[in-house]
Please model this.
Amino acid sequence: MNAPARLTMSRDRYLDWEKTQERKHELVEGEVRSMAGGTAAHNAICANLIITLGIRLKGKPCRAFGSDMKVAIPNGNMRYPDVVVDCGKPKPTDLWAAEPRVIIEVLSPSTEWFDQTQKLEEYQSIASVAHVAFLSQNRAFGRVWSRAGDGWTSVDSDGVKASFGLAAIDLSLPLSDVYDGVEFAAPEN
Model:
């Protein structure tokens, strides 16, 4: 069986092309990559984040978006983070966040290493991004990377009694809210 041909294109062509697709695709180094679906735990965590952030950001200049909002990476890549807090003023027809301030990824076993290395580096290259958070879908745990001058520092939050801070948007999110109703899979032996 032959492997499918790789689809490559420019960012402008990708943006036009993807509007006509039934599924989401990221653009990575000029190559189109199909997005996979997530588990029930992954989706519940993302929904909890959108609800919690939406309530806490009400009346403020920033807004939380789910995984249908793209983020433009300075190197030309286009990504779909699980959650993005945009503090810009996007027009209703915009296809990507105008001024992403916070990016959150819920880690999947198959992409965990990639998300915390390559995607982290890409997200940190966006000038407006102040925080990049990674949340486990296997236990109540999060790691938040925060811009500190010319560098980045990380803080871990572990357990449902913990919370993680997002100083750039003046919020602290309790992991009990993020993981509300989420059932964790039993560990494999």
